[in-house]
Amino acid sequence: MNNITISRRHFATKAFFTHLSISLLIALLISLIVFQIWYPNPYYKMIGSLKLMGLIMLVDLVCGPLLTLIVANPAKPKKELIRDFGLIGIIQLAALCYGLYALAQSRPVALAFDKDRFYVATAVEIEPDRLAKAPEAFRSLPLFGIYQVGTRNPTNQEEFLEGINLSMAGIPPAARPDWWIPRAQVEKNITNARIPLKTLLDQYPDRAAVIRQYLSNTAKTDNLYYLPLTSEKTLDWIMVFNDKNEAVAYVPVDGFQ
Q1: Hey, which of 93, 125, 179, 250 would disulfide with 42, CB 3.0 to 4.6 Å?
Q2: Where are the beta strands (DSSP E) in 123-236?
Q3: pTM of the predicted model, to two decimals?
Q4: CA 24 → CA 56, 61, 88, 89, distances in Å?
C-alpha cells in the first residue's frame, strides 16, 4: 500500500468524521425541536412521526457523511473539493428542510375536547379559511406548544347540518378552528363525560395490564378517570386524568366500550 493511498484514506476518514460530528449536532438539535417542542409525549407515537424522523436521521447521519467519504481526496484541487463538499451540503440541507417542513405540517396544534373524547388536531388538517374565522386567540397556529380547547355547539340548523356533512367527510368539529372555544368553557362538560378508570380496568383485563404499565405504582385508580384520545390516524389511545381533570398518563389502548 503506497503513501498516496494511505494519505487519501486518512484524508477521507478525517473528512468523514468531521462531517459526522457536525451531522450529530444537527441531529440532536432537530431531535430537541421535534420531541420536546413539536411532538412531546404521546403525540410522536400517536401521529406517527417516528418513521419520518428516522428517514431524516438516515439522510443526516448516514448519507451525507458517506458521500463525503467517497468524494474526499487530497489529490483534488481545492476548488473541486469545495465544490464537492458544498454540493453534498446543499443536498443534505435540502433533504433536512423538506423533512422538517413535513414534520411541521404534521405537528399537533390543538388538543380539543369534543363531547365524549379528546381529539389531537394537526396543522395539516386545519383549513386556512376556518382558521381566519376562529376566536382571536386561536387565529394563528402555535409554533411551540399546543392549544387546549373545546368545541362549541352549532348555533343554528344550518351549522348543525354542515357539521354532520363535514364529520362524514372526515373533518370533525375538533379540527375546525371556527368551532374552537377555550377549554375552561368546557371543563364542566369534561367532568360530566369522564369515565372512572376502574370501569375500564374491570371490564377489560387485557387492557388493564397495559394501563398499569403506564401508571406509577403509587397511583390509586379509584381517583382516576379517562376519556378516549383520538386523532386522524388512530382511535386506540386514552388520556388518564385525576379528579381535577389534569392529565397523568397517556395509554395506547382502545377507550371505547
Answers
A1: 250
A2: 147-151, 180-182, 195-196, 225-231
A3: 0.83
A4: 12, 7, 16, 14
